[in-house]
Amino acid sequence: MTNIKDLAKIARVSVTTVSRVLNNHPYVSEEKRMAVLKAIKDTNYNKNINAVHLSKGKTLMIGVVLPYSDHPYFSLLLKGIANEALKNNYKLVLFQTDYLEQREMEALEMLKQKQIDSVIICSRASDWKTIEEHLSFGKIVVCENMTERHVSSTYVDHYKTFLEALEFLFSKGYEKIGYCIGRKTGSNSLARECAYRDFMNKHNLSYTAEYIIDDCLYFEDGEKVMKKIRGMVEPPEALLVTSDQVAAGIVTYCHNNHIAIPDELAIIGFDNEPIAKLMNITTIHIPLEDMGKSLFLQAVSKERTNNEVMIKLIERGTA
Amino acid sequence: MTNIKDLAKIARVSVTTVSRVLNNHPYVSEEKRMAVLKAIKDTNYNKNINAVHLSKGKTLMIGVVLPYSDHPYFSLLLKGIANEALKNNYKLVLFQTDYLEQREMEALEMLKQKQIDSVIICSRASDWKTIEEHLSFGKIVVCENMTERHVSSTYVDHYKTFLEALEFLFSKGYEKIGYCIGRKTGSNSLARECAYRDFMNKHNLSYTAEYIIDDCLYFEDGEKVMKKIRGMVEPPEALLVTSDQVAAGIVTYCHNNHIAIPDELAIIGFDNEPIAKLMNITTIHIPLEDMGKSLFLQAVSKERTNNEVMIKLIERGTA
Prior knowledge:
Two copies of one chain form a homodimer.
Chain A: H1 4-11, H2 15-22, H3 30-43, H4 49-56, E1 61-66, H5 72-87, E2 91-96, H6 101-112, E3 118-121, H7 128-132, E4 139-142, E5 152-155, H8 158-171, E6 177-180, H9 187-202, E7 212-213, H10 221-230, E8 238-241, H11 244-256, E9 266-271, H12 274-278, E10 283-285, H13 288-300, E11 306-308, E12 312-314
Parallel strand pairs in A: 1-2, 1-3, 3-4, 4-5, 5-11, 6-7, 6-8, 8-9, 9-10
Antiparallel strand pairs in A: 10-12
Helix pairs in contact in A: 1-2, 1-3, 5-13, 8-9, 10-11
């Protein structure tokens, strides 16, 4: 394979000059530049970027860790990250983890081995200690409230958000309120449970464990939720559903089975996806694309910042 | 930074031995292995994978080119690719292109510069010549019928599929048939248009240009389609809709506006997403995750293969 020395020999210039031409450095005479370009063409030389990275210590690649790339929540985050990455000439390395810690480790391992410059963790299964051990190897950015840790983060305050939605339902007269989430573990869901308990205590409402339904991610999970609820002796009158996809599935099931919304069951979705608008679902607007943009910018910034993203309850027909 | 020679010196072994330990080669005495591992630990040495790649000529990274990572069609393809990549210890570099040729070029450029081993092109804006010029730099796999070109491909025969769906509608008595697509250019859509024209000619039906509606990708586009149709003097009686998302948007709009399906308008969706099942939409099943798996396996295989994927019309309530 032709290397930079061969090029210098063929073009009859110094190695420094070849290097300057390869890196678009201005201080090269036009004559020498042409000679180098001709040598590059004649030898079919390709600058080996791995070698360039090796010398510069930068890869211009960012790892993105997310559990499911086909879920609208994560694919909108990813879209925001990807658009900003392209603008800034960065590439993304995708780690679709299915919440397997081992797959998250692969991203951290790549960071450690300098194959990527930073890691954006959209959601994780690993405990914080594992992440923390890799902080010295490069930038790690998370999508959860981490203001007390030494990382950058872009996040929604899920405690505050849940409390706001619960109080909204309470103000409308609902007291038997349940909620649907993706998984019970995870720092976001722990914040939600905390808000739920605090809300229940504040209003002297009784905590019903079966009102918390997990494993709710996709449209088709809406049917599963409704079958559970219909099997309850004392079903909830209202549900917070942390994904518009699932909320849409619930609304569709209720429609097909003549369950009146919101009279028999009130629904508040999350994310404000287009499907929520079209199905007239009351929801919490979360600016996912903007969050993705922010996560990317934090991943390439030297500063450490924590951006809380503002949410908004959008009242429509289901609550 | 510590390099492999430093490690050899510290551990008092040969460079070859250090290299063997780093690569888990079996022929190293336990004593020497321990010495090298101790040196690695003491110097906080991280094997620089960029350097390893440089010597092996392999990156274990595959580029994936797709226009939108947030569209269910592409996110399901991506899921199939990503799951198989993880099984095989490969990483994915994501190129979300918005159908900009320049962004597709970035992937081809990375292939040329040996930063990735292969490129999977799920859909493209660039013409074939551009792709062809990069075939010598590494494996390129496409998701379109390319049996006559020198690439591997996994594809649906969109001509055959469209014809089957059109004949199905014709057998049910529909003659004024339109269709909705993402974009009019692109080899898949050209195959569809060809099938549409052949079908029209065969049955002596008149070709109506306004029955072909493009820019249809998301749920919310269903509303746009219906507004166009309601503005037509002679609207179509049936629609092939090349995305279940859009089909679901159309069905929702019709439901909200008291347009009877299939009596006033018959609908056939594409992909067989969960939303099609729940909304009882007649659709064409396309095994997108399996296609993703096949694309990945082709990307890492030395052989050149062309896999036609079999589709299936699933009759439900909308046609």
